[in-house]
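Morning!

This is the sequence you dropped in the shared folder:
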Amino acid sequence: MWKSLRFCMYWSVVLGIWGIVVVGGILAYYAAHLPPASEWAVPQRPPNVRIVSANGTLIANRGDTGGEAVRLEQLPKYLPDAVMAIEDRRFKYHFGIDPIGLARAAFVNYTSGRTVQGGSTLTQQLAKNLFLKPERTMQRKMQEVVMALWLEWNYSKEEILEMYLNRVYLGAGAYGVDAAARVYFGKSARLINLAEAATIAGLLKAPSKYAPTRNAQLAEGRAQVVIAAMHSAGFITAGDAKNALFNPAHVVTSHNSSSGNYVADYVMELLPGYVGSIGEDIIVDTTIDWDMQQAAETALTSRIAESRQEFNVTQGAVVTLNRSGAIRALVGGVDYRKSQFNRAVYARRQPGSAFKPFVYLAALERGLGPSTIRRDARVTYRGWTPKNYTKRYYGDVTLTQALAFSINTVAAKLAHEVGPANVARTARRLGITSSLKSNPSIALGTSEVTPLEIAAAYVPFSNGGYGVVPHVVRQIRNEKGEVLYRRSGDGTGRVVRGDKLSEINSMMAQTIYGGTGKRALLAGRPAGGKTGTTQGYKDAWFIGYTSSLTTAVWLGNDNNKPMKKVSGGTLPAEIWAWIMETQHQNIPIARLPGVPINLAETSPLQKPGTAPARRQPTFVTAPQQPQPPRPAVQATTAPPQQNNNSASPLDLLGRLFGGG
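The structure's back. Tokens below.
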């Protein structure tokens, strides 16, 4: 008996040694097809860009992974436990490969007659993801073992587990547990509960199959398997398991529809100009006020949803800037999932009458005034005959009436008097950057602009006459807190003289208080603005401002099809008022140069055609003394007021008929 036992032991040792030699030889053979070990290195995880609002609210993560790299100690303990329980229960005890696990998997699969369990450890899976192609060959499997042994030799178990959790694919374009938590549950992986952790761990078997966004019932069933495995492995108590089973994870509505994605896309396009190529995780602090952003998105999307059928309007854009040009809200469309085109930044559309303030400002700078009289009558320039929106002519009107009621013939006359080139120069001075055609029709906004640039060009009316550079990035820093970029300098200097600012504001206030923009009236808050409607109702605008914020609203259709009689004074004005009332809830009422706070209590502006035109009161207050934005680029100032000795015949006529 003892001889037989010794015989068996002897040959077991011999066969074991030869087995090790054979396996070692096979591994050495396949390892020879790998690069030299001195060149092996864990590739850097693709960097993540975390984009946050002014108060730190996450707007979006951008990058190949879709989430942040998280440290193991930052995660709730049950997340790595869930992964180990369902994928590699002996992870902490093996050396990269698990002979016991392999034997168990082989036995289960053999007795089941099909593949039920896998034998790969988490380390092997990480090695495959980091270094190897996803092909199913013996060579790849042996190389996977070699690389797993190398990882175990060079990294701790905690480091290996952390790398795995931050890089594994979990469906829906999410790489890593943080990206998965944000995609499926709308939160960081640091904040998920046990049921959510089990759902994420359950995805490892087949991310597409078990994704809760595709099949919630299948995902919940898989999560129950994970919870049972965690209890069996001793990671959680029976009470924890019962609570998680009775409170399954709930998937959030897709966050990809949020308008914040338009902001994130815009930021990503700007980043190379600030920091060059991105080689590490960074945090971008933006100027966006998240409450204002949500107010703008809600107002735009809900109003268009209500009006889509009745008015044939399908798209829109909103931009809000503060008095220094910081973008506080930016909505590039009604549904980011359906269209990622950012209309707020890139859509070039005709502004229509929303361009007229630049025409009137140019006229004011030439010596005319709000009470200057011009005749509303048929006029033709180079074969072009502008027509009024009402298709009527009103005779003598003041410039205030003409602007407030958007009389096209008077705007065309003024552009002709001051010169289309001067109108274009005025618009550029205030912030228009698109190409402008210096022809008579410039008065009616026939040159295309973007919502962002025309909103920025209106900001000087609100801030005391200072030009601004619209911007959305405040600061960029890395995970260590090192500042890579910080914005400095806010504007282009003074672009409108104080006296002319008061005059143009007094005129634009009348647009809201009694003109075409009456639906944009704000309760008890001085404001100015202008409606804009293009030929055939293809575009409708309202752009307006208080002393704190400037907002532009555009509505239209991407295919340029006409809306059903949507003018700037209808839906855009209503949306603008809704947005601005909400955005100003915590902002004190402040004076606007040229506009008394109690303007609504004064005599209303006389509507053209209802009585002979006469001088309208010009509400001019002492201009505010705002702190001018620090000049980044010196801009050309407004032309000086001409004196009597050099007055042109046009100036003399304007003064004779009551001009300023």
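Headline: The CA atoms of residues 405 and 516 lie 5 Å apart.

More detail when I'm at my desk.
O.
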